[in-house]
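Subject: design request, 289 residues
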């Protein structure tokens, strides 16, 4: 498609726009806006597979723990719409909070267990994933896409979304696109814009910590504690302490003690006011430098 995407604000309008286009396939890229190259890679992937690409832009209040974080989250819809168009979006779905959570709203989609209690759930509280699961379920119901596209950077979110899609029998394929990175390896995130230049320089230690564990594994180390220690040492050199740096099973997110198959190494670091998360699946993926 060429030209500006159609911007719709209500579920009724979204369904009306999509109704005549369903035969060619519909792809949904859920976002909270502040689009960057990572989002654009999701949109391009959807463009390559689907007749119609919808990008949702909704800063979802229910997944933010801190009011200040929600207030500070960048809102750049005009620029986002242009970027989405350039990457191939046909429709931008940008609902209001009242459209998504009308008066009397009382339903929460909650994925139980370690999927939402570990890692991000342990730090941010499980209400975070309740907010994500509820809004993703609503977006999938609104757009009824054939496929929805998510970034691998949010590995736990992907596992949670896969679970809810399977459990609720939602007929949408979940597509996961590799993490988009800056030249020094930092995973692209809307939050990176908030880093000061000193913090931005330190942030490169986050992907380096993953690579150190990966290198240790390549060197024959399979003990999880030793691999985590290799990653922690890199962060410590930069004066950083992770909120977590954990080796877990990529499907269940349960901790592992030894690497004898694919494992997810996930890290979260707070740099000033900004939280950075990243991950790598050891043994099957290389973190670019
Ligand atoms: O990854 C995000 O940007 C958000 O968590 C999502 C999936 C759009 C739900 O608000």
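Subject: RE: design request

Done. Sequence follows.
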């Amino acid at each position: 498609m060429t030209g500006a995407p159609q911007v719709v604000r209500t579920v009724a309008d979204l369904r009306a726009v999509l109704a005549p286009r369903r035969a060619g396939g519909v792809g949904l890229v859920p976002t909270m806006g502040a689009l960057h190259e990572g989002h654009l890679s999701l949109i391009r992937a959807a463009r390559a597979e689907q007749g119609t690409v919808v990008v949702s832009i909704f800063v979802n209040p229910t997944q933010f723990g801190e009011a200040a974080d929600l207030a500070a989250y960048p809102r750049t819809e005009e620029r986002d719409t242009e970027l989405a168009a350039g990457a191939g979006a046909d429709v931008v779905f940008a609902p209001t909070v009242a459209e998504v959570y009308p008066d009397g709203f009382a339903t929460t989609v909650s994925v139980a267990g370690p999927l939402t209690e570990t890692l991000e759930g342990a730090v941010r509280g499980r209400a975070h994933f309740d907010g994500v699961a509820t809004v993703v379920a609503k977006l999938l119901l609104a757009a009824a896409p054939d496929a929805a596209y998510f970034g691998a950077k949010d590995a736990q979110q992907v596992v949670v979304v896969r679970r809810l899609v399977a459990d609720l029998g939602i007929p949408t394929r979940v597509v996961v696109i590799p993490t988009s990175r800056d030249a020094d390896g930092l995973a692209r995130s809307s939050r990176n814009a908030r880093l000061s230049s000193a913090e931005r320089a330190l942030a490169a230690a986050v992907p380096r910590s993953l690579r150190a564990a990966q290198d240790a594994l390549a060197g024959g180390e399979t003990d999880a504690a030793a691999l985590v220690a290799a990653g922690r040492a890199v962060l410590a050199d930069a004066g950083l302490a992770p909120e977590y740096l954990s080796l877990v099973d990529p499907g269940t997110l349960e901790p592992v003690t030894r690497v004898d198959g694919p494992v997810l190494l996930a890290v979260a670091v707070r740099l000033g006011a900004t939280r950075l998360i990243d991950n790598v699946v050891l043994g099957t993926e290389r973190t670019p430098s």
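The domain at 6-177 is CATH 3.40.50.620 (Rossmann fold).
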